[in-house]
Structures are given as structure tokens and as C-alpha cells.
Amino acid sequence: MIYPLSLDAYPVRKMKTQVELKFSSFFEKWMGLLEEFLRYYLRVSEENSQEVDHEVLVNKLTAHHKEYYTYKWAAAHEDVLAFFAPVWLSPVENVNLWITGWKPSIAFRLIESLRKIQSPGASLATMTEEQVKKIEALRVKIKMDEEKVEREFERQQVGIADRKMVKLAALEKRVVKNGESAVTQLNGLVEVAIKGLLGGLENVMKMADCVRLKTLKGVLDILTPIQSVNFLAAMSTVQIQMRKWGKKHDKKLQ
Fold first, then answer.
1. Which of 65, 127, 137, 234 has its CA 20 to 30 A from that of 26?
2. Are 58 and 220 in contact (CB under 8 A)?
3. InterPro entries in the record, alphabetically (predicted)?
4. Domain for residue 7, yes or no?
């Protein structure tokens, strides 16, 4: 009779991989620079908004985001699974992830919230009717893109039950009977199956990132430079505060 293994038989991975270590370091520095950008913008805005070159600031912030995705894609090519369970994020940040990052639809909710703010410097409150229509059209397109990515992600998830995996299960039963030849065949199929799974996940991650980048570009193309800066500042604030809340929550549990 075969008894089920206890939970102790499944070791909990505590050590970080090289990719996780490198990306953790990169991400901490990247977030630090993002916070510096935000502090700079808030400071000069309070002092004298006329001196702020909003277009230059938008370019710096977009370049900063592009750097993140460039580094992320290179790291994910080595270890894509690290980005589906990122150790550099707190549980609070992780629960808000949509396929390894922020969900594009959030950008449109943020714009809607910013439009309702009636105060000096609230540039999105002065969006024109044409801008609002363009943002809505973009929102619809992005929603369709999100659904496309989600369908592909689901396809990858259910793919674990495809013919290759079923064949692996059947082969495993033959290992004991046929010895090393069956083991070699089994290992080969496992390697092929895992390689296919990882390749599929990397593709889904890039699809999701492309929708995020498409959202940013689409929104910034519609907004004026000062509106774009306000939007990016709000996006940055959400990300920074979420990280701070997550770290604070983690400390309470220690």
C-alpha cells in the first residue's frame, strides 16, 4: 500500500536564484530612482510650475520604464518563473499583479479619478471632450488586448494536460519495468515539456508587457505634456505607496 507523503517531504525553497538576486537589486534601485523623479516633480511643481519642462520629464520617466522592461525581458529569458512568483515584491504587491505586472485597465481608472479632482494643478480635470473620447476608444482596445493575453495564459495553463504530459504519466509507469532506457526517454520528454511550458510563459509575459507599454504610449499620445506628467506621477505614487505598505505589513508580521 502506498501512503501519501507528508508536507515535510516537500521542501520550501528559501534561497534566491541568481536571476532573483540580480533582479531584486535592480528593482530596488529602479524604484529608488522612480521615487527621486516623483520627489523632484512635486518639489518644482510647488515652487514654480512655469520652470518645469514637462516634456523632458515625460521623456525621462518613459525612458525609465523602458529600461525596466528591457532588463526584465533579459532576466526572464534566463528564468521566467521568477517573474510569476517575484521574491522582490511583498505579498501586498503580489496580490495586485496581473501576469507579472500592473493591469493596463488600472490606467484608465486612474485617469477617471484624476479628472474628478477639482484643484489648482489638477490638469486632467481640464481634459477636452476630444481627449476623453480618444481615451475611451483606447480603453476599449486595451480591454480587448487584455482578454487576448488572458486567453493565451489560460491556454498555457491547461496545456499541462496535453498529450505530452499524458504521455509522461504513462511512461512513468514503465520506468520500473524497463529500467534505464525508459528513464532516459522519460527525462527527455520532461525536458521538452518543461522547455515548451517556459517558452509559452515567457511569450505570455511579453504579451502582457506589450499591452502595458501600449497603454502608456497610447495615453501619453493623447494627453498634453503637463497632463502626462500628472498621470505618470499618479501612477508612480500608487506603485511607490503600494511598495511601502507592503514592506510595512511584512515588518508587522516579523
1. 234
2. yes
3. Seed_Dev/Stress_Resp_Reg, TGA_domain
4. no
Query: Could you tell me if residue 12 is inside a domain?
Result: no
Backbone angles phi, psi at 7, to 5 degrees: -65, -25
Q: Judge whether 77 lies within some domain.
A: yes
Please give the C-alpha separations between residue 181 and each of 173, 175, 185, 194, in angstroms, as whole numbers: 13, 8, 6, 20
| Residue range 15-56, pLDDT digits in tens | 689 999 999 999 999 999 999 999 988 877 766 556 568 888
Given a contact cutoff of 8 angstroms between Cβ atoms, the answer to whether 142 and 105 are in contact is yes
Assign 3-class secondary structure to the chain. CCCCCCHHHCCCCCCCCHHHHHHHHHHHHHHHHHHHHHHHHHHHHHHHHHHCCHHHHHHHHHHHHHHHHHHHHHHHHHCHHHHCCCCCCCHHHHCCCCCCCCCCHHHHHHHHHHHCCCCCCCHHHHCCHHHHHHHHHHHHHHHHHHHHHHHHHHHHHHHHHCHHHHHHHHHHHHHHHHCHHHHHHHHHHHHHHHHHHHHHHHHHHHHHHHHHHHHHHHHHHHCCHHHHHHHHHHHHHHHHHHHHHHHHHHHHHC
First to last CA, the chain: 42
Predicted pLDDT at 139:
98
Residue 121: half-sphere exposure toward Cβ, Cα within 13 Å? 15
Q: Which of 220, 52, 59 is nearest to 134 (CA)?
A: 220
Q: How confident is the model at residue 217 (pLDDT cuts 50, 70, 90)?
A: very high
**101 lies in a domain?**
yes
